[in-house]
Write a structure and sequence with these properties.
The protein has 255 residues and is mainly α. The chain contains eight helices and two strands. The radius of gyration is 23 Å and the shape is elongated. The two termini are 46 Å apart.
Length: 255
């Protein structure tokens, strides 16, 4: 029994797998070799290659050795750029938690993030874990995989695309800080107003040790407001996911 595999399906599988590996190596938790073994990352990338390769347009498959090598380099660059967009926007909620930690006076020792194995603040990790849970509960990972598959329907990444890639990444970096501030802004405003009230109270009643009470009050308000503010995360994360998919497509001119 002889198994015959055509040239084009095999090359399409190789190109998709190359982009998938580069994509996964940037996106947590696959970006951390200690958290996810390399074998698991390669297996997931191979599975994506098997699923997506049949949908790759035949006209985009190179027919020469030089074209194949160039296309492999292009796929690696495309996957890394798309993965960085996902990574950048996923860090938004973590940054929001870090801002609240600083403003709320929760100066606890940083904890170990299980996704990236980096040290993050307590509230930063809390927000990140909620975002991950919502991401899987809402089926957002299916949209992410669908966006990866659709990226092969548009034009490929070329040297002429570097300007567009730089523009998208700079805008996404600004979006990360803006979105983190928007998530944390209501809590930050309340905490700032609390500090002003404590300062006025110190002027009105100098004999009171307001600063001794100020830290527990700020911490209590921060925790109470976080419990209330978590309710807005699902809708906000939906908007971030849509932005993530749009920018990933925009990197390849498929916006």
């Amino acid at each position: 029994m002889t198994l015959s595999i055509g040239y084009q399906p095999l090359v399409a599988f190789l190109l998709v797998t190359a982009r998938a590996v580069a994509w996964l190596l940037v996106v947590p938790p696959f970006s951390n070799r200690s958290a996810v073994p390399t074998t698991v990352t390669v297996c997931v990338a191979t599975a994506l290659g098997v699923l997506v390769a049949p949908s790759v347009p035949v006209g985009t498959i190179p027919l020469t050795t030089a074209g194949l090598v160039a296309s492999l380099v292009v796929q690696v660059l495309s996957g890394a750029a798309m993965g960085f967009v996902v990574y950048l926007l996923l860090q938004t909620v973590t940054a929001a938690g870090d801002l609240i930690t600083i403003a709320g006076g929760l100066s606890l020792p940083p904890s170990l993030d299980p996704l990236s194995l980096d040290q993050v603040s307590v509230l930063g990790q809390f927000y990140e874990q909620i975002a991950v849970v919502l991401f899987f509960i809402s089926g957002g990972y299916w949209l992410l995989l669908d966006g990866f598959a659709r990226s092969f329907q548009g034009p490929a990444f070329t040297l002429a695309s570097t300007g567009r890639v730089a523009e998208v990444l700079v805008v996404d970096l600004a979006t990360m800080f803006t979105s983190a501030l928007e998530i944390a802004a209501p809590i930050l405003v309340v905490l700032f107003a609390t500090e002003i009230l404590l300062a006025l109270l110190t002027k009105a009643a100098p004999q009171m040790n307001v600063w001794f009470l100020g830290m527990p009050i700020q911490i209590f308000l921060a925790l109470a407001l976080v419990a209330i503010g978590v309710s807005v995360l699902p809708a906000y994360l939906g908007g971030l996911l849509s932005r993530m998919l749009g920018d990933s497509a925009g990197l390849l001119g498929g916006r």
